[in-house]
Amino acid sequence: MATAPHNGASRCLRIAAAGDLHCDEHRAETLAASVAALEQSADLLLLAGDLTTLGEPEQVAPLAEACGRLTLPTVAVLGNHDFHANRTDELAGVLEAAGVHLLERDIWLGEAAGTRVGVVGLKGFVGGFAGSHLPDFGEPLLRRVYAETSEDVEALERGLGEVAVCPVRIVLLHYAPTADTIAGEPEGIWAFLGNDRLAAPIAQHEPDLVLHGHAHAGTFAGAIGSTPVYNVAVPVTGRDFWLFELDVPAGDRAPIH
Fold first, then answer.
1. What pLDDT sits at residue 6?
2. What is the pTM of this model?
3. What pLDDT is attached to residue 171?
4. How many CB atoms lie within 10 A of CB 245?
5. Cα separation of 103 and 122, whole Å?
6. Which strands make up the sheet holding 74-77, listed edge to edge?
7. Which band of pLDDT confidence, cut at 50, 70 and 90, is reported for residue 46?
8. Cβ-count burial 98-131 (b if 16+ within 10 Å, e if not)
9. How far apart are CA 88 and CA 78, in angstroms?
10. How many other CB atoms sit within 10 Å of the CB of residue 233?
11. What average pLDDT is seen over the chain?
12. Which single residue of 113, 116, 134, 225 could bond 203 by disulfide (Cβ 3.0 to 4.6 Å)?
């Protein structure tokens, strides 16, 4: 992401991000090397879900082990692939044992490069965009989908309020909150790639950055109002991790202990 030129009155916060890594035994070695390289190039690592191919805990173990060797903080959400085996508790245990901060309708407040950072993290869910919205009507199962997204919207609103005092505020999702970044996918499946009900809290609170994955044939960059939104799914970025840079004013740095 383009930023203002760095000067003595500001500090550059480097954020590495990726979604849809789809870890398995075939990816373990190369992915571990890519993670290790972030020690020199990033201050914060954000993982936007679909960390595994089939949601098996052993698939995420090499990624967790590699992240555990980093000195920079790692924050993650899960994706739909990570739920496939119905072993999310075990998968979460592997990640958290390695020091990864796993969020679901929750926040992470921490420090990166001497800067206070607040991350609001949730998987998100289906629901659709203009022309493809799933309604709060009809069969109970369909209304449960709508209700699930309602809980996401409430959690996102609450989380953004909780991180409001942070100089850097980031929303980390798996599903897309805007149609901008799913453009390129067949319109017939847009309802299953995310939902724009998540856009309202983002537009209101104007975080610095929104990241998501899931839409493999989507578009890299979009926006919700003045807030940039990026689809960091590996099939979209074409690399294991994308590096973003934010200039943080000197007065917004966290105390160094």
1. 37
2. 0.93
3. 98
4. 15
5. 6
6. 101-102, 74-77, 44-48, 10-18, 242-249
7. very high
8. bebbbbebbbbebbbbebbbbbbbbbbbbbbbee
9. 9
10. 28
11. 92
12. 225
3-class secondary-structure state, position 248: strand
User: What SS3 class is residue 125?
Assistant: coil
Q: Order of strands across the sheet with 227-231?
A: 106-112, 115-121, 168-172, 209-212, 227-231, 221-224
Cα–Cα distance for residue pair 224/176, rounded to 1 Å: 11
Q: Is 118 helix (H, G, I), strand (E, B) or coil?
A: strand
pLDDT at 26: 84
Residue percentage of the chain with pLDDT more than 90: 88
Whether the per-residue pLDDT at 5 is higher than 90: the answer is no
Q: Six-digit token pair at 237?
A: 């970025």
118, 168 contact by CB (below 8 A): yes
